[in-house]
């Protein structure tokens, strides 16, 4: 018995989901899982170096995961998918049980419709402090922005979004507490470690020209992901500064942080006492064995 899955998107998310869903569903359902990736790029994993792309192709072939490149899904129906190639040819894939959407980032209409300055793709312009220059009370990070001081950099990747989270949190706190001249600059890293979970206890990885598909690669990925998650507990987002800043608690008690050290308890107190509390929204990563979320996508004001 077969279960047929089509994944729309051939980037990192589509690759991980294809391999991890196949592995997990074969174990859970005791059925054969047929997976096809449909992506707009000329080949799967096009954003990676040639050596890593070769490793990805070998691994997909070993798992009998097929790919249709230079194409996009244009219609999804009951048990079928219609996709179109760059030559405008259309094909229908029958007998599809599940469709997974894992395409790249696209801009939202909200910034443009709100009168904010956007680039030619609709992404909101921000300065080096992740702040909209004309509206200093508006900040952005991750896949919705274009940093004006960089040309098409950084790419729309989660590693940049999660590292921008603490910068925004601290800048929001500074704005609320009247320290708009002390905003922190976001400096994106030039290169990052690429790790793709293969679902079988291994991970394909690459950096500094090296490529691997190993068990220790997965152990490293799992460790790094959990470190990220630990970084983004709300009270860890706020730095405890030694500036003698007074924070009002319940409009009565004043707490002087001048002598407080940057400890867990100090961070928790700073988070609890801050004027405008923030909470995190995270989305669970479906590829890991444990139910844990590690990517922070946005901040919202508590009601």
Largest sheet at a glance?
Answer: 4 strands, parallel
For the terminal residues, how far apart are their CA atoms? 49 Å
Shape: globular
Residue windows where pLDDT falls under 50 for at least 5 positions: 240-262, 273-302
> Measured on Cα atoms, how large is the radius of gyration?
22 Å
Number of helices: 6
The succession of helices and strands, N to C, reads: EHEHEEEEEHEEEEHEEEHEEHEE
SS-based structural class? alpha/beta
The helicity comes to 25-40%
Average pLDDT: 78
Question: Strand order within the widest sheet?
Answer: 3-2-1-7
Short synopsis of the structure:
27% of the residues lie in helices and 29% in strands. The chain is built from 6 helices and 18 strands.
């Amino acid at each position: 018995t077969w279960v047929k899955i089509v994944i729309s998107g051939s980037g990192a998310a589509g690759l991980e989901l294809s391999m991890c869903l196949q592995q997990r569903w074969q174990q859970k359902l005791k059925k054969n899982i047929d997976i096809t990736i449909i992506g707009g790029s000329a080949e799967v994993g096009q954003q990676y170096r040639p050596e890593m792309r070769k490793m990805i192709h070998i691994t997909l072939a070993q798992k009998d995961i097929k790919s249709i490149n230079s194409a996009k899904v244009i219609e999804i129906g009951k048990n079928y998918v219609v996709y179109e190639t760059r030559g405008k040819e259309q094909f229908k894939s029958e007998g599809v049980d599940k469709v997974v959407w894992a395409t790249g980032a696209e801009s939202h209409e909200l910034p443009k419709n709100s009168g904010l300055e956007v680039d030619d793709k609709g992404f909101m312009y921000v300065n080096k402090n992740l702040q909209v220059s004309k509206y200093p009370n508006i900040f952005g990070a991750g896949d919705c922005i274009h940093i004006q001081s960089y040309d098409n950099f950084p790419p729309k990747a989660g590693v940049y979004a999660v590292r921008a989270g603490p910068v925004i949190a601290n800048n929001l706190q500074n704005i609320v507490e009247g320290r708009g001249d002390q905003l922190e600059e976001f400096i994106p890293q030039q290169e990052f470690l690429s790790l793709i979970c293969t679902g079988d206890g291994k991970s394909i990885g690459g950096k500094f020209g090296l490529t691997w598909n190993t068990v220790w690669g997965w152990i490293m990925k799992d460790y790094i992901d959990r470190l990220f998650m630990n970084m983004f507990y709300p009270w860890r987002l706020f730095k405890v500064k030694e500036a003698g800043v007074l924070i009002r608690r319940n409009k009565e008690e004043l707490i002087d942080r001048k002598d407080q050290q940057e400890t867990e308890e100090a961070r928790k107190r700073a988070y609890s006492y801050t004027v405008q509390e923030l909470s995190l929204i995270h989305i669970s990563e479906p590829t890991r064995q444990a139910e844990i979320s590690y990517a922070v996508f946005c901040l919202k004001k508590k009601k």
